[in-house]
Amino acid sequence: MSGIIDIPSPRGLPFVGNGLQFLGSNVVARFGAAVRATPDGLVRLRFPKSVAPVPVIVCSSAAASQELFDDDRFPKFLSPPLTALAPNGIFTMLTHDPVWAPTHREILPSLSGPQVIRDLPILHSVARELTDFVIGQGPRDGRVNMEDALTRAAFDAICQIALRTSYGALYRQSGPEYFDLVRKGLDETMAELRQLPLVWKVQIPRRRRQAARMSLARMEADAIIEHRRHLGPEAGTDDLLARMLWEADPETGQAMSEDTIRDQVLSFSVLGQDTTKSLMTWALYHLSAHPEIQRQVQGEIDSVTGGDQTRPLSATELSHLQVLDRVLTETLRITPPIPTVARYAASEETLLGKYRVPQYSIIVLLREIAHRDPSTWPDPEVFDPDRWLPERIASIVPGSYAPFGGGMRACIGQGFAHMEALTFL
What we know:
- This protein is of the alpha/beta class.
- The chain has 19 helices and seven strands.
- Helices cover 51% and strands 6% of the residues.
- A four-stranded mixed sheet has the order 2-3-7-4, with helices on both faces. The chain has a three-stranded mixed sheet with strand order 1-6-5, with no helix packed on it.
């Protein structure tokens, strides 16, 4: 193919390539510096085969982002530590796995708009618990760890809504055990992702603790499933776990296997609360750093609630919180909960019409860098919710904003996460 060129690569060292340049802390920032040094925001990194046996390409441009979310050309890539958490989980399964499509079809109704509206009373209840906890905790020592409180509240919400199981994680600060298991399990998985495979392999005691931790988490997931099966459909059939237990795939007519049900319970317990917690924590941070915006949000809430902030709001009333909605959207831009997303080339491909992408290459999109690209965002480092006003949205460059991914693998729970964040805040 004429005119096709190789993606530029920074100079590396013999044997280790670019490995030593991109180890340690601030890896995303280093990746960002590398792509900014290229004309089209694309760079190919070279690592020893023990680290990355296939080419690794890093990008941050809006144009490349649009191409990457073509699931036929660039399916979602998942690293082994993530897939090991729940091999058949909706978040951690490869798209070409024959189980993924029926699982997606069966889960989607539980996270659709109408179902989220029906679950609003549960969100309001947990939000009330969160507010009471913060008010009660603050006077004791003058401060509250909001990230921890929001993590626990988000865990309670997803367990009550998806599994109809309540753990009361907010007030049980020494547990409950299942919360501690899934939280530590996710932390350790993220730690493994940041390390070289060889470094992780030699940490045998740590790996054994992680294996034991996840084994206990699977046992708890089995107990949740068995308890719900014992209650039967009479306890309700409109939640995620009930649908997985008693409904078949609408296209194939097949029921979900026990292993797949267990992995969905684990997936939603482990991963179903993490991004929402991060969104809400960062939103509070940005509001505290911008008191004038905080006053706008407070004024809007007072107007919608009539001053009674203890009463639950309807979905219609929540939709009127437009300033808060823009705050959440801008928070996702400037501090995305997941700063990168990875895809791989299913065959020999090109990017931007001229760059060669070898088959099986892993392509990492730097969301955090793309969302702050000065070539597509005016004043990208400024927290400006008004950039999401209706009259300004039309000027946003396609592909420059992708906090929930795109294509078939766009986050299945993004609507639920947004409604949860609106309700809690």
